[in-house]
Amino acid sequence: MIEIEEIEKIIKAIYDVSGYDFSEYSKKSFSRRIEKILEDNSLSTTGLIKKIRKSEKEYIEYLIENITVNTTEFFRSPPIWHSLKYRILSKYNDAQKIDIWHAGASTGKEVYSMAMLLNEMNLLEKAHIYASDINSKALEKAQKGVYNYSLNVEYLQNFDEVLRKNPYNFEEYYDIPYSKYFDIDQEKDILKVKDFLKKNITFKKQDFVKRENIFYKKFDIIMCRNVLIYFNLSLQSKLIKFFYNNLNFPGYLILGFHESILGNEAAKFHKKHLYYSKKLI
Fold it and tell me: Which of 26, 27, 51, 274: CA 20 to 30 A from 176?
């Protein structure tokens, strides 16, 4: 177990060299990631700090890749997608445009899930999806939209739950083939999203800690799922305020299945089912 003083020294070294600020990340989560880096590279904390201070940009990006969490899947937690489909996106049938931001897009599976859902609802052409993440390698993978079939085939069950079935009417079933949205080659272990899904997506690198609106616009929907849990309560509160200020009215914020808005920021939103809607205050 790394002492807190050592963790703070590592955080300072990273900040001094790169400007990345991990001081408001969950110390428990950050420590666990650093311990793995030390073990994988046979380093002591002193050795890691020396390496950071002498490092090139590539090594800092390696650290970012290994410190940040990039767990994602297609249509993760179907009930949240049901809320999007039946309670939120349906409100935009007559809208001229829809702006959606995936904050913490990781390798893009959630982003492409949104594009598929929008297409099924005949909303894709008037929607623009903005996707950001601090991890450069994850963003590169997201832009390519190419994944291992064997590692993702089980998540196609989520595809079925969201796009093929209606949880409010079990008699309804839509026979949507996977080939509509994916090019699949099982022999080469490739699952590739169709190019037409990428047309209205903008990917950009972003450090949430700086709370900068890098897209220079407000959004109708912000998806930030399973990201806040890796920050301390102070940073969580700052980010919720940032999201509120960058939401249109009406606007919707979707967090992870086990995440919630705490403290004073909770008064700025209505909690509805599995999502939050912006209040005018």
Answer: 274
